[in-house]
């Protein structure tokens, strides 16, 4: 598929790219605190804008899901994430911010609460899990549509434009650009949602018999296609990623006050709900108006090509590109900080704080190269979300909850935590690989019929709880 742009569309896109370069190369002097965490001084509007834009980078994946499965896309990829974001806001956000005085990353917290080897293992998991591979894939796909480039070349160019300004300007540049991207994503989808509703008779048009496949109007999906209540519950477990997501923690570390973090996340949920309404409605209209797409990832571009005039089409493409680039930028930066601080700096004999930006810049390039390789290996946004969630959430969930528990008796000793994390990843990854090699990616045959996350969580719980019991017994014996 190739986008047909008028001159005004190209001018809109060009202005956006120039803005990225200006922000990236604007001269500035920054401390390590500014470069890595924006001086822990994010005000509420900036906090909400950067969190909303970053957490919604899977825009083509949202279109793919809505186009292919209908309303169950919201039930699985919307509601569970709101639920755990609210849990994070009410029970964790303030504690994360208060405990972040000497922390830049989750591994910083793991070393403080457990030990160095646990922090290094957590850093490795965070590095792989925070990989921006799915977002780089979507950026590449959008640029391929725009310019007709080969996918690999498009991903490389998109990555360069996505990280060029954080390479120089750090987290504060990321936040500033995220604010623009927040407005662009809402502007683009307000335009196309309004066009769909105004031109085709409102939302009622989707419920006309024959407009959509019947299973697309089922909130739990079609059990005959492997969906239903059990399928939705799996996505609730995958949504636990919200608790362990490095982006959530990073932005809480950077919030001006604990209250900023709490209120900001709750306001972000309202924004995500509003945006999800538009993405799901437009995804269903794409299915109704373009029913025979060979590649469901092209749902939104195909719909734009069909109904948007010049100028509005350019704005809508920015509405798609903005959140994808926001997530690419933010998660590449998180991965870069993980390499720079949590590996190179942490393992250095002489820890030189002044070299942290230099180490992070090296990490940016390394994480971008790894992400491009993963994107080529697994060229499905939904499958990447599914795989990373199943493998890494079990390993990180209990250590993070234990570290922030109000009663430290619920925190296991470091050695037990390390074993819990390691076993969780080994078992869940093994189950995922077994299922994909015995039945395929689309119809996996997992051991015992369990999702990999279930097996991983079960294995994690045993050593972690055993450590808590051993610790209490040791205390009472003393």
Counting structural domains, the number is 2
- What is the CATH topology of the largest domain? Sodium/glucose cotransporter
The helix content is: over 70%
What is the CATH homology-level superfamily of the largest domain?
Sodium/glucose cotransporter
State the end-to-end CA separation. Answer: 70 Å
Largest sheet: none
What integer value in Å does the Rg equal? 22 Å
Structure class: mainly alpha
Order of helices and strands: HHHHHHHHHHHHHHHHHHHHH
- Give me the count of strands: 0
Low-confidence stretches: none
- Assembly state here? single chain
- The chain-level mean pLDDT equals 87
The CATH class label of the largest domain is Mainly Alpha
Q: What does this protein structure show overall?
A:
The mean pLDDT is 87. The protein is mostly helical and 478 residues long. α3 packs across α17 (312-347). It has helices at 7-25, 32-37, 44-55, 59-69, 72-77, 79-91, 93-98, 106-113, 116-129, 133-147, 151-199, 229-238, 241-244, 246-254, 258-289, 299-307, 312-347, 356-377, 381-403, 414-437, 452-477. It has two domains: 7-387, Sodium/glucose cotransporter, CATH 1.20.1730.10; 405-478, no CATH class. The chain contains 21 helices and no strands. It is globular, with a radius of gyration of 22 Å.
């Amino acid at each position: 598929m190739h986008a047909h742009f008028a001159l005004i569309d190209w001018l809109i896109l060009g202005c956006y790219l120039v803005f990225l370069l200006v922000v990236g190369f604007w001269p500035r002097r920054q401390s390590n605190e500014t470069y890595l965490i924006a001086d822990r001084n994010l005000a509420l509007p900036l906090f909400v804008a950067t969190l909303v834009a970053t957490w919604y980078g899977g825009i083509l994946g949202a279109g793919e899901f809505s186009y292919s499965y209908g309303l169950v896309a919201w039930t699985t990829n919307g509601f569970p994430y709101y639920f755990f974001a609210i849990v994070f806001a009410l029970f964790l956000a303030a504690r994360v911010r208060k405990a972040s005085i000497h922390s830049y990353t989750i591994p910083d917290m793991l070393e403080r609460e457990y030990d160095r080897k646990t922090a290094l293992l957590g850093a490795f998991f965070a590095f792989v899990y925070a990989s921006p591979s799915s977002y780089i894939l979507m950026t590449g796909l959008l640029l391929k549509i725009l310019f007709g480039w080969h996918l690999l070349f498009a991903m490389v160019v998109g990555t360069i434009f996505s990280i060029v300004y954080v390479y120089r300007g750090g987290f504060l540049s990321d936040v500033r650009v995220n604010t623009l991207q927040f407005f662009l994503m809402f502007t683009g989808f307000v335009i196309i949602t309004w066009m769909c509703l105004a031109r085709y008779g409102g939302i009622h048009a989707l419920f006309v018999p024959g407009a959509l496949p019947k299973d697309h109007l089922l909130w739990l999906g079609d059990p005959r296609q492997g969906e239903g209540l059990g399928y939705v519950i799996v996505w609730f477990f995958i949504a636990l990623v919200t608790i362990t997501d490095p982006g959530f923690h990073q932005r809480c570390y950077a919030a001006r006050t604990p209250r900023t973090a709490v209120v900001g996340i709750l306001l972000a949920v309202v924004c995500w709900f509003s945006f999800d309404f538009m993405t799901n409605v437009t995804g269903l209209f794409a299915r109704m108006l373009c029913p025979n797409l060979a590649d469901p990832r092209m749902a939104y571009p195909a719909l734009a090509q069909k109904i948007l005039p010049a100028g509005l089409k350019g704005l809508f493409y920015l509405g798609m590109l903005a959140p994808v680039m926001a997530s690419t930028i933010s998660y590449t930066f998180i991965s870069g900080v993980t390499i720079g601080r949590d590996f190179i700096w942490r393992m250095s004999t002489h820890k030189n704080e002044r070299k942290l930006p230099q180490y992070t810049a090296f990490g940016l390039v390394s994480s971008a190269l790894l992400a491009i390789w993963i994107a080529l290996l697994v060229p499905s946004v939904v499958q990447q979300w599914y795989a990373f969630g199943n493998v890494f959430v079990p390993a990180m969930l209990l250590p993070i909850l234990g570290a922030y528990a109000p009663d430290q008796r619920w925190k296991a000793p470091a050695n037990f935590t390390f074993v819990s994390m390691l076993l969780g990843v080994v078992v869940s990854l093994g189950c995922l690989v077994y299922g994909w090699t015995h039945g395929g990616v689309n119809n996996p045959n997992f051991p015992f019929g369990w999702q990999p996350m279930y097996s991983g969580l079960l294995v994690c719980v045993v050593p972690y709880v055993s450590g808590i019991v051993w610790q209490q017994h040791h205390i009472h014996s003393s």
